[in-house]
Design a protein that fits this description.
The protein has 2 domains: 63 residues, no CATH class; 126 residues, Aspartate Aminotransferase, domain 1. The longest helix is centred in the first third of the chain and has 15 residues. The two termini are 18 Å apart. Helix 1 crosses helix 4. Strand 2 and strand 3 form a beta hairpin. It has a 6-stranded antiparallel β-sheet. It has 9 helices and 6 strands. It is of the alpha+beta class. It is 44% helix and 14% strand.
């Protein structure tokens, strides 16, 4: 039984950018309050709100609107950060502009993600995250001048490790490091890569296992 998911048929998927987060925050605000961002921005302007800090306190104290829903109103009123307006190609290009020798590593991982069913690619300013339909399972980050780290939400010892691909995980065990994180950070495994050749079947099987565990 193959450990790596079969490539999805049809054209390759496009990488998402911050637009997905923007849309999700707008939807969250609408679900929470029954009113859209234009309504809340107009209401805040009428109340004389002049800054992001004032807006957040006002939304929280007067209406109980907190967290990501606040961002939707703030961005509507005060504009979006510059990096959020960049497209996916520009974001990935910026990450490796000064380290072009590492770009093939990221490209090889993205090629797998693009061809694998059930994987969504999200570009950020400083990293790329890979998501299942359920949640994020991997992050690809240039962390040094000579390495790219793949951090994983991956169970290598508990029930999840036995249920998905125990043999593949055992084979990759020497490459998977345990990293110290905050108590609430579940991305406790890392594979450090220094060349595109290291994006091999073993690594792709590890990514496939992380995908399966988080789907």
């Amino acid at each position: 039984m193959p450990t790596t998911p079969e490539p999805a048929p049809g054209p390759q998927k496009e990488a998402g950018t911050w637009q997905l987060m923007v849309d999700n925050n707008k939807a969250r605000l609408l679900r929470k309050t029954g009113k859209d961002t234009a309504h809340w921005a107009g209401k805040a302007r009428a109340a004389g709100i002049q800054s992001d800090g004032e807006l957040r306190v006002w939304l929280r104290d007067e209406f109980g609107v907190t967290g990501y829903a606040q961002y939707a109103v703030s961005w509507e009123m005060f504009g979006y950060p510059d990096f959020m307006l960049r497209d996916a190609d520009e974001l990935i290009g910026g990450q490796y502009a000064n380290h072009p020798h590492l770009r093939p590593i990221a490209d090889a991982i993205l090629a797998w993600a693009s061809a694998t069913g059930g994987v969504a690619i999200q570009m950020r300013k400083g990293y790329v995250s890979l998501h299942s339909a359920r949640r994020k399972f991997a992050q690809v980050t240039r962390t040094t001048n000579n390495a790219v780290d793949v951090t994983l939400r991956l169970d290598t010892t508990g029930p999840g490790a036995a249920g998905v691909d125990a043999v593949g995980l055992q084979a990759a065990a020497g490459r998977i490091e345990t990293v110290k994180t905050r108590a609430d950070d579940l991305f406790t495994r890392r594979v450090r890569l220094t060349s595109a050749d290291q994006v091999d079947d073993e690594l792709l099987e590890t990514l496939a296992t992380a995908l399966a565990q988080n789907s």
